[in-house]
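At your convenience, could you comment on the folded chain following this short note?
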Amino acid sequence: MTIKRLNPNKLPFLQVQILQQIYLDIYNQVPTTLANLAELTDYRADSKILQDALAKLVEKGFLTGDLTTGFQIPLEGANLFDNFVKHQDYKHKYYSERLLRFAQENGHARSTLFEPTVSELNSQGSVHRWYNYLEEFPYQLIEDKIKAYQLQPQALVVEPFAGSGTTLVSANFFGCNAVGFDANPLMTFISQVKTTWQIDLKQYKEIVYQISQEFIAQIAEVD
């Protein structure tokens, strides 16, 4: 019997967020609550958008059940669930201290053994997800297209509706040049920040420390 595998790449970003959280809850054997999903997505617990996203995941076959009775993984989603859990299960990942020390002492700071893949970098939200955008689509969609068209480093990717920069960030992870436009000045600013990676970390830490000290000094006087 052939089991049809579910493809999360076609899900809107909000649904991907919720699905990942529910998968982790099932793995950790804890109930999923609206309060937790609201905190994760920045939507109110009584938001219709949140309720509709849950209903869509059930309708599309990624989940069965509901918040009251608990969610389960359908047979078609077993492989997706296993892959996601293995990817997120950091508790059981272990790297030898001797091996790490050897790599550092021999000047291999970017050893391929520890070089994360594009998907690993993206999935943790290190760049993509620090700004929630309602119309955002899964970054995997862009990754798949870059691979399908076999774009090489230095290729040019143009995004006329840049939004929060999902296309631009993904293209940059693959070493492509990316140009984006958007009619919304705020989203243009967001995209510019997300695609500016040449940052002096030492200066950044000094500024953060300075601001933190000023905040601590003044917070006691704030009502």
Summary: The radius of gyration is 21 Å. Confidence is low (pLDDT under 50) at residues 107-115. The chain is about 50% helix and 5% strand.
